[in-house]
Specification:
This protein is an alpha/beta fold and about 325 residues long. About 45% of the residues are buried.
Length: about 325
């Protein structure tokens, strides 16, 4: 304990990304004046020489490792080798050079994709190793698991303060809406907005609609990461989520209502749905560092839709 964000020199990998921007905004709001957010053009985090140069150039106290190579089901299925290698190397190199450079703490942001395909719901941290991840994102989930293994090994041998957060599916303003990289909420939201504008009679959704997910608003996620940075120094992984479960069918219906789409939703069961159920037990985060999600799901979706219409549609007109 004892780390104060306002006084810390902080490295945020992936700082230009969806979650990274929210984290940097909240760090600044907390009074942190020293924030390093490296860009890929200058530092490729899969290359040892670049990571070594990063830490030599920017000595830091705290590392928030958010950088990831990930997309939706289609992206992960098309690029499993790239996804595994990039995430494995980024985690391994950033943590190793953080330790060697004298950083006092490393917060690794893992993923719900690391949970076994058939883990009991709600997911409990103790069940993380009870099986292999769901195959459509097995490469990504396995690479993220290795960051937890590395952190616990470094804690045991070197006394390095590495903590690991298991992040549920994120959404919110600033998300990726590009078809090749988007996750389910931005992908559906974009398509529904376009279908409503075109008066399309029906819209096809991948999967049978029965799969469930848990979603965490991006600002809540950023707040949880910073709470863990200040208040949690344990070696056990911790779920970061909102503690609810919604089916893709229910999600699509809600988004159709919010976007004003009046056509028919058609669920294509021939397409992969991914893991059948996802929802987390979030009690450990509340006990360990007082985290609870604050933004209601409908409210968060409305804010995301408003941002998309203002920044994407408005900018194109």
């Amino acid at each position: 304990m004892g780390l104060t964000l306002a006084d810390a020199r902080v490295l945020v990998t992936g700082g230009a990304g969806f979650l990274g921007r929210a984290v940097r905004e909240q760090l600044a709001a907390a009074g942190c004046a020293s924030i390093v957010a490296p860009r890929r053009a200058e530092y490729n985090l899969t290359r040892a020489a670049d990571v070594e140069r990063l830490f030599a150039t920017h000595p830091v106290d705290l590392v928030l490792h958010l950088a990831a190579d990930v997309g939706g089901i289609g992206y992960n299925l098309a690029n499993p080798g790239q996804v595994f290698y990039a995430n494995l190397m980024m985690g391994a190199l950033v943590m190793e050079h953080a330790r060697c450079s004298g950083a006092s703490k490393f917060v690794g942001v893992g993923s719900v994709c690391a949970y076994p395909e058939h883990a009991p719901v709600p997911f409990r941290e103790e069940d993380l190793w009870a099986g292999y991840p769901e195959p459509t994102n097995g490469a990504y989930g396995s690479a993220k698991r290795m960051m937890l293994v590395q952190g616990q090994a470094y804690r045991a041998q070197y006394g390095f303060n590495a903590v690991h957060l298991l992040m549920m599916n994120l959404y919110g303003p600033g998300d990726h809406f590009e078809p090749e990289r988007s996750h389910v909420i931005p992908a559906l939201l974009r398509r529904l907005v376009e279908a409503a504008a075109a008066g399309a009679p029906e819209l096809v959704v991948w999967g049978d609609g029965r799969a469930t997910r848990e979603f965490l608003y991006v600002d809540d996620a950023a707040r949880g990461i910073l709470l863990a940075a200040e208040r949690y120094d344990g070696g056990e992984p911790i779920n970061l989520g909102a503690g609810f479960e919604i089916s893709i069918r229910e999600l699509a219906t809600l988004l159709a209502e919010l976007t004003g789409y009046r056509g028919r939703l058609v669920f294509d069961a021939s397409k992969p749905s991914g893991q059948q159920r996802r929802s987390a037990d979030v009690s450990r985060a509340k006990r360990a560092f007082g985290f609870e999600a604050l933004v209601g799901f409908r409210e968060g979706l409305a804010l995301t839709l408003e941002w998309y219409r203002r920044t994407r549609i408005g900018a194109a007109q």
